[in-house]
Write a sequence for this structure.
């Protein structure tokens, strides 16, 4: 069984969030939550919330949450907010607020594979 959770428009830089996502990719869910608790990065708390949501989704669907493993975790770039700030000699200096879309997919390893009938083409 596969379950998925996503959080869109998270106000964190995708590049910084990918560093944290790489730490927990492929781990079991409970082990990954422990690692994220101890990671001293701003993005760790946000990824932890998405992971907790995916575990809750698995619990609602009746899956075995003890054997859940992170099969896919991706941090995609969201829209950017462009702002201006005052600089020297009255000139504007642009800066960018980045956002990210975080998607976590959990699996327990018991996937139903649909086989196609060779007679149907």
């Amino acid at each position: 069984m596969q379950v998925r959770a996503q959080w869109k428009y998270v106000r964190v830089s995708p590049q910084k969030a990918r560093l944290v996502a790489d730490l927990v990719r492929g781990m079991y869910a409970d082990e990954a939550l422990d690692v994220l608790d101890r990671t001293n990065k701003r993005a760790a708390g946000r990824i932890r919330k998405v992971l907790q949501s995916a575990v809750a989704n698995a619990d609602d669907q009746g899956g075995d949450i003890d054997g859940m493993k992170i099969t896919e975790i991706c941090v995609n770039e969201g829209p950017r907010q462009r702002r201006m700030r005052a600089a020297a000699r009255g000139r504007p200096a642009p800066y960018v607020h980045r956002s990210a879309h975080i998607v976590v997919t959990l699996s327990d390893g018991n996937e139903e594979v649909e086989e196609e009938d060779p007679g149907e083409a």
Remarks:
- The helical segments are 14-24, 29-38, 42-60.
- DSSP finds three helices and five strands in the chain.
- The chain has a mean pLDDT of 92.
- The chain has one domain: 2-107.
